[in-house]
Amino acid sequence: MFDILLQQIANGLSVGMGYALVALGLTLIFGVLHVINFSHGETFMIGGLLTLIATTTLGLPYLVALPLAGLGGAVLGLAINWISVRPLLPRRDGAADVLLATFAVSILIHQAVIMLWGPTPARIDGVPGAFEIGPVVLTGQRLFVLAAGLALLVALEWMLRRTRFGVELRAVAQSQFAARVVGINVDRVNGVTFGIAAVVAALGGALLSPVILYSASMGQVVIIKAFVVVVIGGMGSITGAVACGLLVGLLEAVLGLFAGEGIATAIIYSLLLAMLLFRPQGLTGKRAR
Amino acid sequence: MTSSPFILGVGAVLAVAIGFLVDSPYFASVLAYGVVLGIFSLGLGLTLGRMGYVTFGHAAFFGLGAYAVALLCVEFGLSYWAVLPLALLPGVGLGVLVGFVSARLGGAYFAIATLTTAEILRLVAANWIDLTRGPMGILVPVTPLPWQEALGWNASQAYLSLLVVVAAIVLALIHNLNRSPLGRAWVAVREAPDLAESLGIPTVRARVWNVALSGAIASLAGALVLPKIFVVTPDLFGVANSATGLLAAILGGKATLLGPLLGGIVFAVLPETLRFVDAARLAIFAVILLVVVRLLPGGIVSLLPSRLRPRIRAPQPVAGDAGPTLFPAAAAGTADELLQVSHLRKSFAGVTATQDVSFTVRRGELVGLIGPNGAGKTTCFSQLSGFLAPDAGQIAFDGRSVIGQAPHRIAARGMVRTFQHAALARNLSVYENVLTATHLALPETVLASALRLPSFRRREAERARLAMACLAALDLTARADEMAQDLPYGEQKLLAIAMALATRPRLLLLDEPAAGLNQVEAARLADVLRMLQRAGLTLVVVDHNLKMMMAICDRIVVLHHGALIAQGTPAEVRSHPEVIQAYLGGQDDDVAEMRS
Amino acid sequence: MRSILRAALLAAACTFAVSAAHAQDPVRIGVINPTKSLVGKQGQQGAVVAAEMINADGGILGGRKIELVSYDTNFLPNEGVAATQRLINQDKIRFITGEISSTVALAVLQLAQANGALFMAAVPKHPAVTSGYDRVFRLNSTTAMDAKDFDAFLVEKIKPTKVAVIAENSDFGRLTIAGLKKLFGDKIVAAETYEMTQNDFNTIVTKVKGSGADVVCLAGSNMEQYGNILRVAAELKLTAKRCVMPGILNSEGVRIAGPAADGAFSADIYVTSLDNPLNKRFVEAYKAKYNELPEKIEVLGFESVWIVAKAMDKAKDATDPGKVAKTIHDNSWETPRGTVTFEKNGQAVAGPLINLEVVQGKLVPAKQ
Lengths: 289, 596, 368
What we know:
The structure holds 3 protein chains of 3 kinds.
Chain A: H1 2-33, H2 40-57, H3 62-85, H4 94-117, E1 130-133, E2 136-139, H5 140-162, H6 164-174, H7 176-181, H8 186-212, H9 218-233, H10 238-258, H11 261-278
Antiparallel strand pairs in A: 1-2
Chain B: H1 4-21, H2 25-50, H3 59-76, H4 80-83, H5 88-104, H6 107-127, H7 129-132, E1 138-139, H8 146-151, H9 155-178, H10 181-191, H11 193-198, H12 203-224, H13 226-229, E2 231-232, H14 239-251, H15 259-273, H16 275-279, H17 281-295, E3 337-348, E4 351-362, E5 366-370, H18 377-384, E6 392-397, E7 400-401, H19 407-413, E8 415-417, H20 430-437, H21 446-451, H22 454-473, H23 489-501, E9 507-511, H24 519-534, E10 538-542, H25 546-552, E11 555-560, E12 563-568, H26 570-574, H27 577-584, H28 588-595
Parallel strand pairs in B: 5-10, 5-11, 8-9, 9-10
Antiparallel strand pairs in B: 1-2, 3-4, 3-6, 6-7, 11-12
Helix pairs in contact in B: 1-9, 2-9, 2-12, 2-14, 2-15, 3-5, 3-6, 3-12, 5-12, 10-12, 14-15, 14-17, 20-22, 20-23, 22-23
Chain C: H1 2-24, E1 27-33, H2 38-56, E2 66-72, H3 77-90, E3 95-98, H4 102-115, E4 118-121, E5 136-138, H5 143-158, E6 163-168, H6 171-184, E7 188-194, H7 202-211, E8 215-219, H8 223-235, E9 241-244, H9 251-257, E10 265-268, H10 277-290, H11 296-315, H12 321-330, E11 333-335, E12 338-342, E13 348-349, E14 354-359, E15 362-365
Parallel strand pairs in C: 1-2, 1-3, 3-4, 4-5, 6-7, 6-8, 8-9
Antiparallel strand pairs in C: 10-14, 11-12, 12-13, 14-15
């Protein structure tokens, strides 16, 4: 029993890293633009789709497909921002309109992919090999997910703390008005932030698809799990998103041992509801307005 | 303006005519699905449009109604038509829960919470095999309607006819509620929730009613779809249904009556008529939603000529009708001291906004609260009116404490506040705004509103007269039908006072009524305040217009850095050394004003 | 005299023209399938090949061609009902064939029965599809029929000591679990279910590995899912023998599983290499049109149109569902599977189950 538990913990951590990457983008967008991007899950899915196309149709190796997926994610993110976020932000009901517009975009992307590529899930071959560490078997891909995820997080942290753009981003997150006053191009910061969030989500999809099967509907599933992570971790908190992403992945895997996947998911969703009702600011206390 | 009997009449005629107008069972069936979707969207529109809450998971109600009826039919062998009305109950139950949630969460969080609820229900339905047979679903036998044979109709026609009747009833119900205090309360919750609370409208209760009704309607729609689909499956709870209802409500115009119904019909009928559309149905709907949100926030119905969108017109003042008494007798109550504040304290993260403030207000006084910016005047008001909880101290109104009470309860007891920035419902007319404010003084039951009983009509006429009287008292009668946001700023402030008057208060807390007013407007305001005091009201006024304050106040309380530094008559305060000290950091005109 | 002759010739020509025109009226048959999905497409393609083959042979009823009117049902009962209504009321067609999902089939059945239409269900396995209506037929085998042959095979040839079951959360999956529990009693050491939308099987496979079973039985209709389960089993180094329950395994599933499928065994009512003239012709025609080899789903889709058309021809009637249904009941039919007859409730009966195994990435009949 203990062996199975250990295996599940290993499984859960790698999937949780994927959740963390998606939640990270969501919380970044909320922290800086103060809006919810409902189409974020679809960017995750597109990352998986681009990887699939690159590895099967174009025959490229997986490690070459990864950065392509990231690039595609960036393009998609910028397009979404340009179409459904930027023009709506200045409105009086801006946040609600962005919520609705990104909801519409998520449906559009999901349906378009189903129409063009079909709803069938597909396998992607990632990093080969498997390593046995005691009773636990970790596939090469899962190790890669953990390693790449960590690398992304480190890179992001470096960007936030050490680069000029990171300073601008943090300034806009604190106060758009003040940032504008000191001459920061807020629109540009918003756009780039959106792009970064999209790249991270797309890479998450590219990393996770070899593990859990790519499917056109994987975005719809992951967006709610990302919300669970972001609400529990605190909307706008990066550490919260990462920690809770891993936590949710772990919880899901362990719960799955005792109940079916459907019940495990329902339990996690109920956690989200409970959090929203009793502590909407999440565990780290960052309150969203 | 259409009345509900008219709606019911049209519905009845249509229902009967169905048998002769729609011959093909195929068309009848397609239209029927459209009407079901329309009813679902009507329910959704109630929450989305009237109350302004975006819901991504309304299919939770839809599926709940379908499953409830299916289970009752199959487990207990009851007839589908007999069980049908019971579908309202689970919708109300879940709606009440979600309504309470909506009071704590807004915007995106509420949307996410509704989506999550729908997903949880879907997972439960898919996994509780013993009860729901999981993904295989429950097959529900639907017997023909009793009157089908008699009228010589086929099953689809009878079904469509029944649906038209139900749709008409739901429309009439919503129409009645929209034009009642409850409906106006919903609009107030949407436009200015704090103002609503301060006017005595119990916002939590209003929200719960809204979502409970919305959920009941959506639930009924879910149960009504059974004769069309035969099998009840977990994807009734799915995002596709929620999204379609949302799109229908928005496309049809979320803040209108017919809009969601039309939207629902269009969204069901169009894919059937254009087969190539069917394959890409959701994608096309999503594109339309995107376009609508980008370009047309009011929805398609906003394109219709405005005479189809009713506007409540102010009633003509009846000559010789003195109107209702606005102000309770000054002698109401016993104690001489109406408001007692003692040792009030409030801090925020290290900043002490209110330090040990104590003062009293006697019945009939006009007390001024002044002090430099940041002195904590508005914070004080917020604590008095229940919007902030003090850290320590006592606040007694008419002898009883108000600490811990919701703002609308405090308003009900007679202490009402206005806000620094005139928080009006911008898209309503001046008259509609004041009419909304009569909620507290002349309450109404939901049942009487829904059925528009004669007793309701009587009380509504009283509310109209009260509203007109308040407008007249502030000389705003001429502006009654103008949009609130079109008023000059000074008159918007007066409108705020008129609305406060409609609650029949005993003590008014006016937060910077003169802010932004020019000399002429300020003088008019001063006259109004004096008039109110003469009529028997007690007033506490916060403002920076020291000239006006010195002129009209009986007593003045001065705050500085959260502490009370002086109180007394204007003359005493004007020459108080600490007061001058406090203002010395400001402009010289302040000092000059005080001395003049 | 000449004018009378001319008039007679004219009359004869007109009659001939009219009847010839009539003879050119196509016979329309309705086909419903979830065409957006792979299985639905496979069923649909089988039906199309059937129509083409019949038309290439000269059609039925004196040269009339078969025309298929197809609608997408997307695994939703609602869509199935709408499609059936369209067929019956708009297109005036009362012969409905195809479909993959039992849930949709059950809903369609109700409507068909209410309208006296004939419904030839191709793939649905649920027992209730063939109950109480004399114009419904079902071509696939039921789980009970499969169990009769396969159970004996499992017990006598495979002889497991500990059995684990991984089944999808559907009637089919649950029926399979119940059947295996009855067969093996307490030799069952694990019985896991997964959602139809599930993508991540690591938990389930981990649990099965921990149960120590020497045979693991898979019951899932989705080849992507069971294909991936096999993959994960190989990744996690699960050593148990892999048994795929009858009726599910096909070459797409084998392809998805990759090398992990080698050594897995199963059984089905059809295999592409069946040696009879009709099957050879069918396989060739299918390969020529779609550049793929047909398997069970395709052949059932084929049969649902083929048998209805042949029955119409034999009954000399393309409009009365009752007459055609009786003809189907009263006769036996040659199909790529061999000879098919129908029981009283509409259940198709053909030859015995064929044992299959996966050898070097190919699905082939098992060596005895």
